[in-house]
Amino acid sequence: MVVDDEEKIRRILKMYLEAEGFAVGEAADGHTALAMIQEGGWDLVILDLMLPGVDGWVVCKEIRRSSALPVIMLTARDHEADRILGLELGADDYVVKPFSPREVVARVKAVLRRTTGKLATEEPPVEFGALRIDPAAREARVCGQPINLTPKEFDLLLYLARNRGRVLTREQLLRHVWGYDFFGEARTVDTHINRLRDKLGSVAGAPSFITTVRGVGYKLEVRE
Q: What is the largest CA-CA distance in the chain?
């Protein structure tokens, strides 16, 4: 997750991180970041200190109250005291603006190696009944047959699989798959879900995987 009140910075970091295979969500203020973090599912947070409303110091403190979620602090401040305070609050690394996006990506990879022992892009395949999803290869198979998915369809299926059995609202799917700054209507999710269903069901003998929970959203489950 990239948390920064400057849209340009969020977009640049998102572009560079996605080019390395990361799925990226965005938040423009501390309140939104805390709400998204509470929902779970994040591997790392890039956190600007100077945020409107709830600042980065408070966000970091709240994260550390209940989580070991890796945090890289991002700020225009270049004072040693700020860097020390950030690290004492539990930040895993500290990047000063202006920065090189490539350096930030390198630091993200280094922190993930250090804190989890692997990169997020090295996540093992997810297997669910006849469905197998390989995040590293960005490949999905049903009954052993490869399914031709667009990048967004793959991201949507992977997020559903990571939360299999759990009902996800359209708003949650928009936020986590399309990014927080996506302002499309909820029917965009419905369109992609319908396409996924058609593709997953195109294999002979394949069960139904995506269930609609009326008035709420969708969940991934196997239905013969």
A: 63
pLDDT of residue 89: 72
Write the CB contacts of 148 (distance below 8 Å, at least 6 apart in sequence). 199
Same domain flag for 107 and 180:
no
Structure tokens at 2: 């990239």
Domain with 152, as residue range(s), is 126-223
CATH of the domain at 83: 3.40.50.2300
Q: How many residues in total does the chain contain?
A: 224
Q: How far apart are CA 215 and CA 30, in angstroms?
A: 29
Write out the two tokens for 69.
């979620």
Q: Please write the tens of the pLDDT for every residue from 160-201.
A: 998 888 999 988 887 777 654 444 556 778 888 998 999 998
Global pTM reads 0.54
Same-domain pairing of 90 and 187: no
**Domain stop point among 121, 137, 169:** 121
- DSSP 3-state assignment of 223? strand
Task: Judge whether 212 and 219 are in contact, CB under 8 Å.
Answer: no
